[in-house]
UniProtKB/TrEMBL annotation:
Residues given in the record as ATP binding sites: 17, 211-215, 285-287, 333-337
Key word Cell membrane present: no
Reactions listed under catalytic activity: acetate + ATP = acetyl phosphate + ADP
Organism annotation: Streptomyces kunmingensis
Residues annotated as the enzyme's active site: 151 (proton donor/acceptor)
Top-level taxonomy: Bacteria, Bacillati, Actinomycetota, Actinomycetes, Kitasatosporales
Protein name: Acetate kinase
Subcellular location: Cytoplasm
Record flagged with keyword Metal-binding: yes
């Protein structure tokens, strides 16, 4: 029997998201989420996606990632999809920061673990959780290939002119300060899927990808290759996000230290957790913000306007970086669902060949689709992202026997 299943794990600091896929037809067999690990109120939600089983939820204290993964393994086993099955080919792990050197998905060994650990100072929130997930999974199935798929990998093709900050070069190199970019798995998947939607090969299209979720980033993709992206050393730079400020003058930080008497840690929390939409208007959910805008609330209107203004600046910047743009594509929670955001982001850009068709744009759908009018020079597309499928595909491509790689 050929092993064709891949378990995808996305381990956060207090959560584990997972999906089990069968790569013989890219179908999903099960999906789930463990939340609030380490608290009394931990919760596991498991949804079998084959065989017609009902979703199951358990609330029970789950002390750590090891217990969480064991609980996940139990749930999968109940559906006859146990992780001890010979049909499981590999486990694919999302790893947020792969630095400059991990340009590809990589089979995990001790050297890889060490390097991911070495990157903790530049990804203090994410890499430790990712490592815990990997180590726990390795202990459960030591015989199985475990693959790291890095959020940064797609962006390692950025030219130095885009990847470097204009700061003292020796200091930058000493501390590995450069623009790494994140959400790469999503940008890779969505840019490729957009080319397909246009009926073209990725090599033949230039795309601006707008990944607008609670975290948000833009990227400029020329012929399938990322040439710029809005997140930097960390996922704080760039667009206005749910709770993150995106771009600010770095002098804001010195000012807050000197005049506001704040510590570096306090400013870190301010810019990462208490800024962006939530800092501007008290809400980070775009649905709620739009409801408030429609009721004429000024605070919500300002937050929305700042969000859109920043988005437009990046569209303009990446238009200039690419020179020729074939499509602008919206993805993730806000990008896939918020017609007002898409409409406002391209409003007034007709001279750049950009427009949305009001009717097409307002249709709700889970399908990849084009929402620009026939006459527009640049396609405006909405493409639901699928990071789990991308991770599973990249993982399987690395571990499957050659005859199965294009399954
Ligand atoms: P993500 O990080 O991709 O899961 O996106 C989460 C965000 O998507 C939420 O915080 C909301 O702001 C936004 N979102 C989800 N559904 C909708 C919707 N129907 N309309 C507008 N925004 C939405």
């Amino acid at each position: 029997m050929t092993a064709t299943r891949v378990l995808v794990l996305n381990s956060g600091s207090s959560s584990v998201k997972y999906q089990l896929l069968d790569m013989s037809d890219s179908s999903r067999l099960a999906a789930g989420l463990v939340e609030r690990i380490g608290e009394e109120t931990s919760r596991l939600k498991h949804t079998p996606l084959t065989g017609g089983g009902e979703a199951r939820e358990r609330e029970q204290p789950i002390a750590d990632h090891e217990e969480a993964l064991k609980a996940v393994a139990d749930e999968l086993a109940r559906d006859g999809l146990g992780i001890d099955s010979p049909e499981l080919a590999a486990i694919g792990h999302r790893v947020v920061h792969g630095g400059k050197f991990f340009t590809e998905p990589t089979v995990i060994d001790d050297a890889v673990l060490k390097e991911v650990e070495r990157l903790i100072p530049v990804a203090p929130l994410h890499n430790p959780a990712n490592l815990t997930g990997i180590r726990t999974a390795m202990a459960l199935r030591p015989d199985l290939p475990q693959v790291a798929v890095f959020d940064t990998a797609f962006h390692t093709t950025m030219p130095e002119s885009a990847a470097r900050y204009a700061i003292d070069i020796k200091t930058a190199d000493e501390h590995r300060i450069r623009r790494y970019g994140f959400h790469g798995t999503s940008h890779a998947y969505v840019s490729r899927r957009t080319a397909q939607l246009l009926g073209k090969e990725p090599e033949d299209v230039n795309v601006i990808v707008l990944h607008l979720g609670n975290g948000a980033s833009a990227s400029a993709v020329r012929g399938g290759i990322c040439v710029d992206t809005s997140m930097g050393l960390t996922p704080l730079e760039g667009l206005v996000m749910g709770t993150r400020s995106g771009d600010v003058d770095p002098a804001v930080i010195f000012h807050l230290m000197r005049v506001g008497n704040m510590t570096a840690d306090e400013i870190d929390v301010l810019l990462n957790k208490k800024s962006g939409l939530i800092g501007l208007c008290g809400d980070n959910d775009m649905r709620e913000i739009r409801r408030r805008v429609d009721e004429g609330e000024q605070e919500a209107r300002l937050a929305f306007d700042i969000y859109i203004h920043r988005l437009k600046k990046y569209i303009g910047a990446y238009y200039a970086v690419l020179g020729r743009v074939d499509a602008i594509v919206f993805t993730a929670g806000v990008g896939e669902n918020s017609a007002p955001v898409r409409e406002a982001a391209v409003a007034g850009l007709e001279e750049l060949g950009l427009a949305v068709d009001g009717e097409l744009n307002s249709v709700r759908s889970d399908e990849a689709r084009i929402v620009s009018p026939e006459y527009a020079r640049v396609a405006v597309a909405v493409v639901p992202t699928d990071e789990e499928l991308e991770i599973a595909q990249q993982t399987y491509a690395l571990v499957a026997p050659p005859e199965n790689r294009n399954a």
